[in-house]
Design goal:
The complex is a heterodimer. Chain A is of the alpha+beta class. Chain A contains 18 helices and 17 strands. Chain A has 5 domains: about 180 residues; about 150 residues, Beta-Lactamase (2-Layer Sandwich), CATH 3.30.450; about 120 residues, PAS domain (Beta-Lactamase), CATH 3.30.450; about 70 residues; about 150 residues, Histidine kinase-like ATPase, C-terminal domain (Heat Shock Protein 90), CATH 3.30.565.10. The radius of gyration of chain B is 18 Å and the shape is globular. In chain B, the strands form 2 sheets. A 6-stranded antiparallel sheet of chain B has the order 7-6-5-4-9-10, with helices on one face. A 4-stranded antiparallel sheet of chain B has the order 1-2-3-8. Chain B has one domain. The chains are: A alpha+beta, B mainly beta. The interface between A and B is large, with 40 and 31 residues.
Chain lengths: ~750, ~190
């Protein structure tokens, strides 16, 4: 009873643990995602070196995680849908709760998301202004223009030098150096078409980068006699400085090259403009990537929120639905009659209370049923162990239930009779008819007595029962088959059912008869014996008085008559004495008796008959009255010889004594002595067998019927038991056997 | 080159897929490759044809600096251990545009080249000449080696938003295929 109550909480705890594990895993996942997301966002805003190293990685992982979350959500929803379709128990409730929670979580998230999306898009676009772009473009153009102007001016300045005829005659660098003063320049060189230097001089400390005349420049030089270029200085991708080159074709097919560094202030300004322009262009170009980045982060956040919302919805939904489902399952189980303890939730809320109360209710129901069952079992076992037979019949007298006692008394397997009338066994037809009659008579008689209408409902309980003695079988047909006598009591139960309680009182009646006979015998003996003495005396007197006074013929008649009278009176006296002896109870004088000696003594009287002796020499002495026991053996032996001689000329009698070991109630081995006398006579008819020990029941033509009655009486007084049986071989009776079991040993 | 350290030169001339005039496909293609022992070093001369997709050339023209990486590996399989990697070399070539002078600059190490047009600049980027990848002794004479070379646009040196953009933009993933070949170095060891 208690065990399931212990095991159920275990299972419940396991369930809660499962939920907790799920939640923990979920929280860890969310935490990790949050960190990733945080990393991503800081990666965008701050320019942390470490993060920038793994930035792309982070971004990719986030995208993968986002897709994973999406798949998980889809999976959950699909599972729920499939379960819904299959009509899985409790899915609708979970789905409904999940939908509500999901909506509560997702809707604000979605609004926030769409607004943010718009905001990000717009704000990124707003950084890039047409005005700013054109301003930067113009600034750059301005720079270019000033470069071109410088270039142009330098070309014109150089022309003065180029027109100087002296140049063609220069023989050394020293001569060339003199020209430094004529124009503002940093370097003057004389080169040929393949940029091979003839002479070159620096006019200032400025470092000048070597320049090669390109093909296009050469082409233009030949065409216009002069060409200029602007050149970047430095090895980095970003130019450090700029130098102006001007080339002039001299008369001797040589080329004059003059080089001058651009004004550093101008260069600085131009470079600032160029840098701003580049940065702007870079940002402008990267806005798609930027947008992708922000939108990706936002979407991922959105997914995360969605995922949390839906997952929480599913978990909370299940959590909420669990007690309800538990209750539902419980009620289903109870409806199907399963009153086993129901699981309960140990939460302090109302749902927990509900499940606990339901569990309590079921337990009480179960207890009530259990105690009902116990009391039923108890009454059933009481009923089963009653010696009295109990049968319950329904309105049409079909058997509803019968106890073991009834089976024993009726000598039928009544289990097979349930639902059938008793008359299903033909032997019980008489019994059934009697019962029916009794109930019927009972109703009628009650009705007439009480002067009330004959309505069953009106009959009170005291009026519903009857009691009478009935014969189990119909005795009128077969005299030999003696019917047991039953004392039956019938009661009509509410709901048109009948209960019959009956007991086999055959033995009680036999005992009563025996006592009655004893009393009758004593009375009769007394009453008969009184006149017998006067009759005898009178007869003797008649004989004495008349002797010698009559003729011899007459005297003979008188003598015969008186003799007959005296003899008959004497016989009658003997008979009456016998009766008296049976009736009164001479208390036995108990002394140790050796049965074997006793038997051998008695056998001296029966020397003419063949009697086989099988005596146990070890048999201990018993306590008994030797005179009475002698009578017992005598009576039995006489009966056997009489019975055997009825059908055999040579009767065979066997007398036997044996010691019987018997294990008593307290496990002590006790010794008993059995004396049995067997014959080969015709045996007993069933009628005699059941009543052999009653007085005046006899199979003999001239017996008094007192022999066995006296035996039974004596045996009873000796505290022994007597049993009468036919010796059977198959179904043929081979004779009779009387066994006596002596329990009181000396 | 021709004298004191007389090298018995065995030139391995491996011509990559020679794409003639119709090779207008975007991307980087190997046109010519030459690995030869020059003086004390293994020297690579290669020529790549580089065609930038419109987005990329636009980015260059707007001043984004592109880094082209040329990777060269020589490996030799060993039955008892991981493969040996005697040579691993990377060459970084920068390409940038100067809006002020409207010129393109190509920086190869300390050398700076200028070009007036993008096409010219790309030819300069694609022309790898005299790239010393390793000492002669890095490779054993007469053994067979596996070599691989490729050129690609280095995305990791681009500004971050471009990297993000390049994650799912195929045209940004500009790279030549790995050109793999086997060769047996034959040279006259230094000093003998």
């Amino acid at each position: 009873m208690n065990e399931p109550l212990i095991t159920y909480p275990d299972r419940m705890i396991a369930g809660q643990y499962g939920i907790k594990k799920e939640l923990t895993a979920f929280l860890i996942l969310v935490f990790v995602l949050a960190i990733l997301l945080l990393g991503l966002l800081t990666g965008i805003s701050a320019d942390a070196k470490f993060l920038s190293q793994y930035f792309v990685w982070l971004y990719s992982i986030n995208i993968i995680v986002g897709v994973g979350l999406l798949l998980v959500i889809i999976g959950l929803i699909v599972t729920l849908t499939i379960r819904w379709r299959q009509g899985f128990f409790g899915t609708k409730l979970i789905a409904k709760l999940a939908m509500i929670f999901g909506l509560v979580g997702v809707l604000p998230g979605a609004i926030l998301y769409s607004v943010s999306l718009q905001f990000v898009g717009r704000s990124i676009e707003s950084w890039f202004d047409v005005n700013v772009e054109s301003a930067l473009e113009s600034g750059l153009q301005l720079g270019r223009n000033s470069f071109e102007i410088s270039q142009h001016e330098f070309l014109i300045v150089g022309t003065q030098l180029a027109t100087n005829q002296q140049l063609t005659k220069i023989k050394s660098n020293q001569e060339l150096k003199d020209f430094c003063q004529t124009i503002p320049t940093d370097q003057i060189s004389i080169i040929d078409e393949s940029s091979r230097e003839f002479f070159s001089v620096s006019c200032s400390i400025q470092e000048i980068q070597e320049t090669v005349l390109s093909q296009e420049q050469l082409f233009e030089l030949k065409k216009n006699n002069q060409v200029s270029s602007i050149e970047e200085v430095g090895t980095t991708p970003e130019a450090e400085a700029y130098q102006l080159n001007a080339f002039y074709l001299l008369a001797n097919q040589r080329i004059l090259k003059v080089t001058k560094k651009l004004d550093p202030t101008l260069v600085e300004s131009a470079k600032v403009v160029q840098k701003a322009y580049r940065d702007y262009q870079e940002k402008s170009l990267s806005r798609l990537g930027l947008k992708k980045m922000y939108i990706g982060s936002l979407t991922l956040t959105m997914f995360l929120a969605l995922f949390i919302a839906i997952l929480l919805a599913l978990i909370l939904g299940r959590q909420l639905a669990r007690p309800l489902l538990m209750l539902l399952r419980g009620t289903q189980a109870v409806a199907q009659g399963d009153l086993s303890p129901k699981p309960q939730m140990n939460t302090p809320d109302e749902l927990g209370l509900l499940t606990r109360q339901f569990s309590n209710m079921t337990k009480q129901l179960s207890d009530a049923r259990m105690s009902l069952q116990q009391s039923k079992d108890f009454s059933e076992s009481v009923l089963a162990n009653l010696t009295a037979g109990v049968c319950v019949l329904d309105a049409s007298f079909r058997l509803v239930i019968a106890n073991e006692g009834a089976k024993r008394i009726l000598e039928k397997d009544l289990n097979q009779l349930i639902g059938k009338p008793l008359s299903y066994y033909p032997q019980l037809l008489h019994f059934e008819t009697t019962i029916k009659d009794s109930f019927k008579t009972n109703q009628v008689s009650i009705g007439s007595d009480e002067q009330v209408p004959l309505e069953p409902n009106k009959i009170t309980s005291s009026e519903k029962s009857w009691q009478r003695q009935i014969y189990l079988y119909d005795n009128s047909k077969d005299q030999d088959n003696v019917s047991p006598i039953l004392l039956a009591r019938g009661t009509e139960l509410t709901g048109k059912q009948y209960i019959i309680v009956f007991d086999d009182i055959t033995e009680v009646i036999a005992a009563q008869r025996s006592i009655a006979w004893g009393e009758v015998a004593q009375r009769l003996a007394h009453e008969i014996k009184n006149p017998l003495t006067p009759i005898q005396l009178s007869a003797e007197r008649i004989y004495q008085k008349l002797t010698g006074k009559m003729s011899e013929e007459q005297e003979d008649i008188v003598a015969k008559g008186t003799t007959t009278i005296i003899a008959q009176v004497q016989a009658m006296k003997t008979m009456v004495n016998n009766f008296r002896d049976f009736g009164k109870k001479p208390s036995p004088n108990m002394v140790p008796v050796n049965l074997n000696t006793l038997i051998q003594d008695i056998l001296g009287l029966y020397e003419g008959t063949h009697i086989e002796l099988k005596l146990d020499p070890e048999a201990p002495e018993i306590l008994g009255d030797p005179t009475q026991l002698r009578q017992v053996i005598h009576n039995i032996l006489q009966n056997s010889i009489d019975a055997a001689t009825e059908i055999h000329s040579e009767p065979e009698i066997q007398i036997r004594t044996e010691t019987v070991n018997y294990v008593g109630l307290v496990n002590q081995t006790e010794k008993l002595i059995r004396l049995s006398v067997a014959d080969n006579g015709p045996g007993f008819s069933p009628r005699i067998l059941s009543r052999a020990f009653e007085p005046y029941v006899t199979s003999k033509v001239k017996g008094t019927g007192l022999g066995l009655a006296v035996v039974k009486k004596i045996i009873d007084e000796h505290g022994a038991r007597i049993e009468l049986k036919n010796r059977m071989r198959d179904t043929v009776i081979r004779g009779a056997r009387i066994s006596i079991l002596f329990e009181r040993l000396a | 080159m021709k004298h004191c350290k007389k090298l018995f030169v065995t030139c391995l001339l491996i011509l990559g897929s020679i794409c003639s005039g119709l090779a207008f496909a975007e991307g980087i293609k190997l046109r010519q490759l030459q690995v030869e022992p020059v003086e004390q070093a293994w020297v690579i001369n290669a020529s790549y044809q580089i065609e930038l997709p419109p987005d990329l050339s636009d980015a260059v023209k707007k001043g984004i600096t592109f880094n082209f990486l040329t990777e060269f590996n020589v490996t030799r399989g060993r039955w008892y251990w991981f493969e040996e990697k005697p040579i691993t070399a990377i060459k970084n070539i920068k390409l940038s545009y100067q809006p002020l002078t409207q010129q393109y600059r190509v920086n190869v190490g300390a050398l700076t080249l200028s070009a007036n047009s993008l096409e010219e600049a790309l030819i300069q980027v694609g022309a790898i000449a005299g790239w010393q990848v390793a000492e002669l002794s890095a490779l054993d004479n007469g053994r067979q080696y596996d070599a691989a070379i490729r050129m690609r646009l280095d995305l990791s040196q681009l500004p971050k938003p471009f990297q993000i953009n390049a994650l799912n933009a195929r045209e940004w993933n500009l790279a030549s295929d790995w050109h793999q070949f086997s060769f047996v170095p034959r040279y006259k060891p230094v000093g003998k």
